[in-house]
Amino acid sequence: MKYDTSRSRKSTGKRQTHKKKYDETTDKKIENNPDVSSQEEIIFGKHAVMETLKKNKGINKLFYQKGLADSKISSIIELVKNHGGIFQEVPKSKLDELTQGANHQGLVLTVPPFDYQTIEDCLALAESKGQPPFLLILDGIEDPHNLGSILRTADAFGVHGIIIPKRRAVGLTGIVAKTSTGAIEHVPVVRVANIAQTIELLQNQGIWVFATDMAGEDVRQWNSQGPLAIVIGNEGQGVSPLVKQKADGIVTIPMVGHVQSLNASVAAGVLVYEVARHRMN
């Protein structure tokens, strides 16, 4: 059977509006640090900080490394001034402490907690662009680098939103923001209590949902031009059995090598590009 999402899907219910903005987060906090409160998140790295400032997101304070000056950092400091933010020159050891040793590139920005969006926000974004919805559902991704890479790919190829579970999965963090190189500011992320129930909600609104697994339909035979959501599984366990059961179908990426699996972010990249290729044609 060839999956064809260009066929219209009958909606089994009215579109449901999710008013609640999820603001819970599993981000690792910097405890007992007077420079960062429990109500703040940190963004670090030049690209991530610059994109945050461009989005005019509320900022609190910029820490920049003493003795490290270039045109990019100067531009960022100027933007912080324009936003009315506070900035402070500090030794590298302070930035290492704030980021727990991550590659901060000499910049740490403190901001209010990351905003999570709603499914309605994602659908509205697709509608505003005159495009059928294209969503990613991440079933238990735990590595913040994977989430950041998936956000970057999603931004590059026109994904309208990413759905993640509240529990047993990584949320939006400074490392995610850094890895996404600023894409975190452009791709809506929705946090839900139950992935299986969310799949049913999407299906009721006419969106086809496909899970990924080794035993599935060759993705090259897939017509993915209609309203669509792809489920990417956990790094170790893959897509959970219940979620696979709820999905409309299973697709797989054909491989010829000895290792018959891909990193979650790589698999997401291949699948997202395949959808984008169909839609651009």
SSE inventory with pairings:
Elements: E1 41-44, H1 46-54, E2 61-65, H2 71-82, E3 86-90, H3 92-99, E4 107-111, H4 119-128, E5 134-139, H5 144-156, E6 161-165, H6 174-179, E7 189-192, H7 195-204, E8 208-218, E9 228-233, H8 241-246, E10 249-252, H9 264-280
Parallel strand pairs: 2-3, 5-6, 5-9, 6-7, 8-9, 8-10
Antiparallel strand pairs: 1-4, 2-4
Helix pairs in contact: 1-2, 5-9
Keywords: Methyltransferase, Transferase
Family: Belongs to the class IV-like SAM-binding methyltransferase superfamily. RNA methyltransferase TrmH family.
Protein name: 23S rRNA (Guanosine(2251)-2'-O)-methyltransferase RlmB
Please characterize this protein's 3D structure:
The strands form two sheets. The chain has a six-stranded parallel beta sheet, sandwiched between helices. Strands 1-4-2-3 form a four-stranded mixed beta sheet. It starts with 40 loop residues before the first strand and ends with a helix. 42% of the residues are buried. It has two domains: 41-111, 2-Layer Sandwich (60s Ribosomal Protein L30, Chain: A), CATH 3.30.1330; 119-280, Alpha/beta knot (3-Layer(aba) Sandwich). The chain has helices spanning 46-54, 71-82, 92-99, 119-128, 144-156, 174-179, 195-204, 241-246, 264-280; strands spanning 41-44, 61-65, 86-90, 107-111, 134-139, 161-165, 189-192, 208-218, 228-233, 249-252. Helix 1 (46-54) packs parallel to helix 2 (71-82) and helix 5 packs parallel to helix 9. By secondary structure, the chain is of the alpha/beta class. Residues 42-117 form the RNA 2-O ribose methyltransferase substrate binding domain. GO terms for molecular function: RNA binding; RNA methyltransferase activity. Keywords: Methyltransferase, Transferase. Residues 21-32 have a biased composition (Basic and acidic residues). One of its GO terms (cellular component) is cytosol.
